[in-house]
Write a structure and sequence with these properties.
Layout lengths: L3 H8 L1 E5 L15 E6 L10 E6 L2 E10 L4 E4 L7 E3 L4 E10 L2 E3 L4 H12 L1 H27 L1
Antiparallel strand pairs: 1-2, 2-7, 3-4, 3-7, 4-5, 5-6, 7-8
Length: 148
């Protein structure tokens, strides 16, 4: 089995399905196909979805801010972001195949999704905070009920 780095170096692109939910609703786990192309010499742009390596793990997240020395990225379904250096980036998402239909970042519907989803980032963070707080309260209540 070859690594993503080896396959990108050999063929210039990789096609696979994702594992994880960090890029929902754009990508559905084990259902949608992604096409990742090897990153070129130019800098990435805001809203590009990049494949990078964090330690031994491969991560696919969206660039929310291009900074001088790095990028600030987060998954579409994540509360927290992180910094990624240029040297960590392996490739850029160029296509998603969902239910047999191919979507590219240039498609008008994709561009609307990105503007809406990323524009609502602060609101989504508040909603995630409330959701996680409600889950915490529900778990605590369940534990208390089990004791009685």
């Amino acid at each position: 089995m070859t690594s993503f780095e080896e396959e990108l170096a050999r063929s210039g692109s990789i096609v696979f399905t994702n594992r994880g939910v960090s890029m929902m609703p754009l990508l559905r786990q084990n259902r949608d196909l992604m096409v990742i192309e090897k990153k070129g010499a130019s800098r990435c742009k805001k809203y590009d979805v990049i494949l990078f390596k964090r330690g031994e793990k491969y991560v696919l997240h969206r660039i929310l801010k291009v900074r001088e020395r790095d990028y600030y990225v987060a998954g579409d379904n994540c509360r927290k972001g992180e910094s990624v250096k240029e040297s960590q980036i392996l490739g850029i998402l160029t296509q998603v195949v969902r239910d047999g239909k191919t979507v590219t970042p240039e498609d008008p519907a994709y561009r609307r999704y990105v503007r809406l989803w990323c524009g609502l980032y602060p609101l989504r963070m508040g909603l995630f905070f409330l959701r996680d707080g409600a889950r915490h309260v529900a778990r605590r209540a369940k534990k208390l009920l089990k004791r009685n």
